[in-house]
Design a protein that fits this description.
The chain has ten helices and no strands. The chain is mainly α. The chain starts with a helix and ends with a helix.
């Protein structure tokens, strides 16, 4: 039993550390790393994994956002523009998750990872923060739509929503790439907290594992933020895309496997 507990602790530490680094690097909360690894390594079912991920993201995103604030990368208004609609989206997403078969959730997540990977490879270096920020009505509404969709994705799949926050902040609201990552982290904190609370009410949240994941991820998140402000964006995009494709094929195989 002690050996099993030790292995579980080491696995949680490894998953949390990796998730923290990727959260700080890409402004995505870490759910894209945590959910598949909780499923594949700790053998959680999809709903429990997504719920546990949401709880951990609250701590991870908070630490990373505060560090990005020290770099002067946060945009509070833009965080609200995508973050407030995301609160409604996460309520819808958690409701939908209770009504979708677990294997289908796994397949949906695999498709999402492939889409994110392709978009990272096809997009160039998405900015240095020198672009004009857009706050006219059309851009604000479209940015809100990205936020709403990010909330649905977060509640349904347990990711922090950064996979949609960051593109919306860059391509719609005009932030530079690193600014968008930082602002994404700030926007996902209340959304992830709301999603975790709702999942707790559904009985899906492993609170102790979630808090442990979040705490062990914090040093990695701080390191990720430092790297995000130092490394070329293109290098980070391609490396992350390759990891996403690997995880996606593992999840797709699980989702398509016969009982």
């Amino acid at each position: 039993m002690a050996r099993v507990d030790r292995r579980r602790t080491l696995a949680i530490t490894g998953i949390g550390t990796l998730a923290g680094v990727f959260s700080g690097l890409f402004g995505v909360g870490g759910g894209v790393v945590m959910v598949p690894l909780l499923i594949l390594v700790l053998r959680m079912d999809e709903r429990r994994a997504t719920s546990t991920s949401l709880g951990a993201i609250v701590l991870i995103a908070s630490a990373a956002a505060l560090t990005q604030g020290a770099y002067g990368q946060l945009h509070l208004v833009e965080a609200a523009l995508v973050g407030v609609p995301a609160l409604a989206g996460v309520v819808l997403g958690t409701w939908l998750q209770q009504r979708i078969p677990a294997r289908r959730v796994s397949l949906i997540f695999a498709v999402l990872l492939v889409a994110v990977a392709i978009s990272m490879v096809l997009s160039g270096d998405t900015g240095d923060g020198s672009g004009a920020v857009s706050r006219d009505a059309g851009h604000v509404l479209l940015g809100g739509a990205f936020g709403l969709a990010a909330g649905v994705v977060s509640g349904l799949l347990g990711v922090g929503g950064g996979t949609l926050f960051v593109p919306g902040l860059v391509f719609v609201l005009g932030l530079g790439h690193v600014e968008a990552e930082a602002t994404s982290l700030l926007a996902m904190i209340p959304m992830s907290l709301l999603g975790a609370w709702r999942q707790h009410r559904y009985g899906n949240l492993e609170l102790r594992t979630s808090v442990t994941l979040g705490l062990v991820a914090i040093p990695g998140a701080l390191l990720g933020v430092v790297l995000a402000n130092a490394l070329p964006v293109r290098v980070l995009q391609v490396g992350f895309a390759l990891l996403l494709l690997y995880v996606a094929q593992r999840l797709a195989r699980r989702g398509l496997a016969k009982d």
